[in-house]
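Hi F.,

I've been meaning to write this up properly since the lab meeting, where we talked about keeping a consistent format for the predictions we share between groups. The idea is simple: the sequence comes first, exactly as it goes in, then the structure tokens exactly as they come out, then a line or two of notes. No screenshots and no reformatting. I'm using this chain as the first example so we have something concrete to point to.
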Amino acid sequence: MEGLTIENVVASSSIGKELDLWEVHEALEGSEYDPDKFPGLIYKMKDPNTSLLLFSSGKMVCTGGVTLDEPQKSVDKIKRLLDEGGIETADEVVAKIQNIVASYELKTELNLNSVAITLGLERVEYEPEQFPGLVYRLDESPVVLLLFGSGRMVCTGGKNEEQLEDGVEKIKEELKKAGLLS
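Output, unedited:
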């Protein structure tokens, strides 16, 4: 969808084996590991530009991707680096997308008070004293939309682009029906 910009893709994976994070820390130059502060090892990659959190259970979280294929590229790369460092991994490591955060510009300002009243309080959270955006939860969808008075929208909760696109289309339809979007 034109105008929908992926800002962050979060995925989970598993290396398939338990990890000695001190050993991993030694094998991965530039990794950060301080178990007193955080139970996982942090590894920031430059290509793709993502961060991986590795845990002793072998589970991993990849964050920071801006395309849907970057998490898989990242876990493939970490698997290769671990294998090269003498740390045994599973034959195949698969990244499963858990959440995509995207932005969309409606190209018009919104009166969030009118939006909150029109869309119904059962699906809307709007407390401008607490947060400047309106939180809108879609029916029968994991997608949550944050709408701002500027017309900027943040979409989160989707596991694929289609869910995010459907969410944007649904809110646009509802806002047009209510006369709040031209």
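Notes:
The first strand starts at residue 5 and ends at 14.
The chain has two domains: 9-97, 106-177.

If this format works for you, I'll send the rest the same way.

G.
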